[in-house]
Design goal:
This protein has 11 helices and 26 strands. With 471 residues, it is of the alpha+beta class. Strands 1-2-6-3-7-24 form a 6-stranded mixed β-sheet, sandwiched between helices. Strand 17 and strand 18 form a beta hairpin. Helix 4 packs across helix 11.
Length: 471
């Protein structure tokens, strides 16, 4: 119904997506009450609201925490919930500057292209297509968050101050439609390092370049201080190289001799979304394993590293810690996203995706019980997000899936994911696109991109969905 109209808007959709990508809207903590997530997140919201006003929509900036775009009349509210903040991007790793929105070979490259700026713009123009061509009996509202990647404070603020949708979707995952999202647990193992400062090998500094806990880390460095009167540093480096070579072929760790007492180890991995740790290569995990073997070689037992060598099996199956959980939503997965030395305390942060049939509290208790075996280790949960589950035959799930199949000619079934979207923040809401089936998941990855053809196709799908839910 909307194909011709949206095809004619193709250039506008591409240019609007590019302009939004060009704003480096990494969410930050800010003391400015009108910009609680920093200047760039605020700029992204202001641009999107301005664009929406130019397209003829009603808009509202909700105290800088979030905003919305709306059309239609009626008591019921159809919600489309997206976000404008992005995870950081390292220019040195990208083939294109991540915030330049490079258009090449039918793709838009840039941080946020698929997560979630491209899908937000796709949804906005889908709303335009419905508003200009159809009569609906409900209001349709695109809710714009600014803190999705780091805390969800924006959506919490929205729920405290604004009307909740009666039905809706989040364009922040995969097609055909998501009926289940795993629970998410972010926790830390912490250990007082003061007791280890008299050892001939000491950790002076850890730097993982502020990696977010929900991102597979691509780089991590540790500086070690060696007591040169007890250990000859060149011999120590030779031992390190042997340990690294004895580990798997993916262990890419550089050794840099700073002076006769200090060396720096830098581990290189491949970034990915924490929901798919198998896609990336974890720089922190491999570096900790090397450190553990090295300290043991010199008869030094670092308790938190000892626990970690058992914990690391979680990345594949969790059997060693009793976390071999699996159901229709997939396996339990763990991303080791934080490795910190601060005030003589070592912290290792985990982002755990838990299958929908298992309770977060069960996983917490299992991990907590393992820490009790060590006198110097504590366990702390910093965030938890309950799963989403809507039966496949539910009206919303079946309707959206049928719309996708009708437009694409496919015969796809609803799927489950490890990612956490805003859909779980509201009742009667699921995640819906915009990544296409069998297409690489570029969320949080280097050289993130969205296919322009898929961007336009998703806008057509969203327009049909909006009309069906609001007619």
């Amino acid at each position: 119904m909307f194909k011709k109209y949206i095809d004619e808007l193709k250039d506008d959709i591409v240019s609007s997506t590019c302009r939004l990508i060009e704003i480096p809207s990494v969410s930050e903590n800010s003391s400015n009450p009108s910009m609680p997530f920093g200047k760039n997140a605020s700029r992204a919201l202001e641009y999107t609201l301005f664009l929406a006003e130019q397209l003829g929509f009603r808009t509202k900036n909700i105290d800088g925490y979030c905003g919305y775009v709306e059309f239609g009349e009626g008591e019921e509210l159809v919600g489309i919930i997206g976000h404008l903040d992005v995870v950081p991007a390292d220019d040195n790793d990208w083939d294109f500057p991540p915030f330049d929105a490079t258009v090449k070979d039918g793709k838009i490259y840039g941080r946020g292209a698929i997560d979630d700026k491209g899908p937000v713009i796709s949804s906005l123009y889908a709303m335009k297509a419905v508003m200009d061509n159809c009569k609906v009996s409900k209001r349709v509202r695109l809710i714009l968050g600014l803190n999705e990647e780091t805390g969800w404070k924006c959506i919490k603020y929205y729920k405290e101050h604004e009307e909740l949708p009666t039905i809706g979707f989040s364009p922040d995952a995969d097609f055909p439609v998501i009926y289940a999202e795993k629970s998410v647990l972010s926790s830390y193992f912490k250990m007082n390092y003061s007791n280890y400062l008299n050892n001939p090998i000491k950790i002076k500094d850890i730097n993982c370049e502020n990696n977010e806990i929900n991102v597979v880390p691509k780089i991590c460095s540790v500086t070690l201080e060696i007591d040169k009167f007890k250990i000859e540093i060149n011999t120590f480096i030779s031992t390190l190289k042997t340990i690294i070579n004895e580990l798997d072929s993916k262990t890419d760790i550089e050794i840099y001799k700073i002076d006769d007492s200090n060396i720096k180890l830098t581990s290189h991995g491949i970034s990915a979304h924490a929901a798919h740790p198998d896609i990336g290569i974890n720089a922190i995990s491999r570096l900790i394993i090397v450190l553990n073997y090295t300290f043991i070689k010199y008869n030094i037992n670092i308790e938190i590293f000892d626990l970690f060598t058992k914990l690391i099996n979680i990345e594949t199956n969790g059997k060693s810690l009793g976390l071999n959980f699996s159901d229709e939503s997939g396996n339990l997965t763990v991303n080791v996203g934080k490795f910190i030395l601060e005030n003589n305390e070592i912290s290792i942060g985990l982002n755990i995706r838990i299958p929908v049939k298992y309770k977060i509290e069960l996983v917490e208790s299992i991990l907590f019980n393992h820490t009790k075996q060590y006198k110097n280790i504590s366990f702390l949960t910093t965030a938890k997000n309950e799963h989403l589950y809507v039966p496949k035959d539910d009206y919303l799930v079946s309707t959206l899936c049928n719309i996708f199949n009708k437009i694409t000619g496919l015969n796809a079934e609803p799927i489950a994911i490890g990612g956490a979207t805003y859909a779980r923040a509201f009742d009667n809401c699921v995640s819906f696109g915009a990544n296409m089936p069998d297409h690489p998941d570029m969320c949080h990855q280097t050289n993130e991109y969205v296919s322009i053809d898929n961007l336009i196709l998703s806008s057509q799908i969203y327009a049909e969905a909006i009309y069906e839910l609001a007619k």
